[in-house]
Design goal:
The protein is α/β, with parallel strands linked by helices. Helix content is about 40%, strand content about 15%. A 7-stranded mixed sheet has the order 1-9-8-5-4-2-3, sandwiched between helices. The chain has a 3-stranded antiparallel sheet with strand order 7-6-11, with no helix packed on it. The chain has a 3-stranded antiparallel sheet with strand order 10-12-13, with helices on one face. Helix 3 crosses helix 4. The model has no long low-confidence stretch (mean pLDDT about 95). Bound molecules: pyridoxal-5'-phosphate. The site of pyridoxal-5'-phosphate (PLP) has 14 residues, from helix 3 and helix 4.
Length: about 400
Amino acid sequence: MTEQLAIQGGKPIRETLLPYGRQSVSLNDISEVIEVLKSDWLTTGVKIPEFEQAVCKEVQADHAVAVSSGTAALHAAMYALQIKPGDEVIVPAMTFAATANCVVYQGGKPIFCDVDKETLLIDPDKAEKLITENTQAIIAVDYAGQPCDYQALETITSANYISLVSDACHSLGAKYYSRPVGSLADLNIFSFHPVKGITTGEGGMITTDSELFANRMRMFRNHGITSTPQQRTKQGTWFYEMVDLGYNYRLTDIQCALGISQLKRLPEWIEYRQEIAKKYDAAFKNIREIAPLKVKENISHAFHLYIVKFDTDPDQKFIFDALRGEGIGVNVHYIPVHMHPYYRNNFKTGEGQCPVAESAYKKIISLPVYPSMGERDVSDVIAAVIKVLDVIR
Ligand SMILES: *Cc1c(COP(=O)(O)O)cnc(C)c1O
């Protein structure tokens, strides 16, 4: 007998909504933040290089530049590459809008590339075909936490003398052939929004092996000014020069203290996310309507998102509402960026341009996955998915 769905008057699996993602903040995190609040420097202090060094070590990169958000990090990366009007940057259609917006901030044109059907990661062959004499870079997005095919992308970008940028906002802690994400592209972007791998409230970082890029971005995050207040204090001078137009994209010491403390738990969090994914995989293995996205060989997946894909076009809105009704905070990642009105209106994008992403969008749902989920939470998600599928079958 099938159970009645909560949205049809039945009893929900959970009384309170389980979110799809959530931060984990410990008492130790809080006391690290309090220490900074008692100190002399709330911003532009010593916690910033300390956090940058900790991330460099974690991802095996030479330089890291902390900024106020993942979006600011993407913008700074486009600035470092000197993207300007007339330039094109290839971005995947299946991502958050910020991946494309950063190109537009610099006056460039995002060129939307379709994704691989099984992983929903940027398709290197399709990206190569989009390269023109105006192309300056490819931004690869490690969708859901799975590293892209960096070997293929690196071959294409170096053969065409263009840059490779990794939007690793989903994949801090992931690995590609045992190399950590953050050291795989010319510029690598992280976000510390509360649903991401680690959090600073809002925050972001760029890692790179290029000192030139790092210096440009340090200036860019501070109004285009060449010295910091700390240097001026040390040198006992008021003098500074603004040499280019920059922004206030600084991350505070308060936030960096939280980030340093959070980063210590990243490896165990990744392991736990992988464990949850394994449980979902096992539970859904024999359900013919849904399948997880393919996980490639030789990678370690960060599982920022756990996505199930339906085999046919399901009534996505009904399934979404039904799962929400059961108390499961599902989500859909993402509406393909080229389908948004802004891009349709200003860049003449639209339906049919990236058919794989457009079709996948109608078939995907993201299930909750985050470190503070308990065993009971995981089994509630599984029970709710099975309950809803039983009814629509
Ligand atoms: C979260 C995210 C961003 C933006 O990061 P913010 O810190 O929210 O500005 C960019 N790209 C992707 C793929 C993201 O998931």
